[in-house]
Structure formats: C-alpha cells, structure tokens
Amino acid sequence: MNRLRCSSIATLAVVLAVVGCGRELPETAAVTGTVTVGGQPLDEVSVLFIPSSSGKFSGITSSDITDADGRFELEYKLPDPKDPSKPTFGPGAMPGSYAVVVSDYRMLSEMLDPPGRVPEHYGDAGTTPLECVVGTDDLVFDIEVAP
Fold first, then answer.
1. 26 burial class (0-12, 13-18, 19+ CB within 10 angstroms)?
2. Helices (H), the chain
3. What is this structure's pTM?
C-alpha cells in the first residue's frame, strides 16, 4: 500500500512540474505526414498549420520542418502570458480547422530568391489550397505539392 501511495505521489509531482503552477495545457491530437512533389519526398520544408475560422486567422499554430524522407510531426508553441520568452512546446495540434502553409525552408534560411521547390502560393495562408480539420484522434496528413 505504501509503495502504491509513493508511486501516486511521485506521478502527481511529475505532472505538476510539467504543467506548472495552474497552467492548463491544451488538448491536442498528433498530426504527422509526408510532403512530396511528383511522388518524391521534400526535405527541409516548413509545414505550418494556422488556425482559421470564417477566413480569419487566429489561435495557436503548430509546425515542423520535414526530415530527409519528407516526414513531419507537428508541435505547437503555447506562449506564456507571464513571460513570452518562455513558451511551452508540445506535440500535435489543437482540434479545429487550419490553413496549411508549406514553404521551402532551405530557401528561407539561405535567403534564396524564388523559385524554390515549393510554389509561392503554398507559402501564404491566404492563397494556400491546403486545408485540414484536426479532431481529437491522431491524424496522418500527407501533402502532395503540385509544381
């Protein structure tokens, strides 16, 4: 009985340390996928989910950079209202509707002039043709970029 009680107290202490003093973490779903063009994976591509409703963009974004196989796994960034320099990061995206923005990260990081490997309209929340609805279940969202 004591061993169970100690284990429960230790688990509670870890949860409180992760969550912080009264800070509630959002409910999220894991969102993964692959970015390809012509069936070939694109590495070093930024994938950004921007919450949208009725054409307005607001809320917590989720993002990742694709690996060598074109794979991504979204992570959200939750600002700390008391100290914006110390955001909380977590896996996934919150349930809701998103505009999906895809940009050539190599082009952005090296300040290269277009054209990049991803057409420009994918890199703007107002012109991207990509949309996604995230629910409470984990989601695989594969993206085929049209050249």
1. middle
2. 2-19, 105-109
3. 0.76
Q: Tell me the C-alpha distance between 47 and 62, whole Å.
A: 8
pLDDT tens-place string over residues 20-71: 555 566 789 999 999 999 999 999 999 999 998 645 555 789 999 999 999 9
Supply the Cα-derived Rg of the chain in whole angstroms. 18
| DSSP bridge pairs for 41 | 36
Q: Fill in the DSSP letter of residue 105.
A: H
pLDDT of residue 111: 59
- Note whether 92 and 76 are within 8 A (CB): yes
Burial of 84 (0-12, 13-18, 19+ CB in 10 A): exposed
Tokens of 51: 């919450």
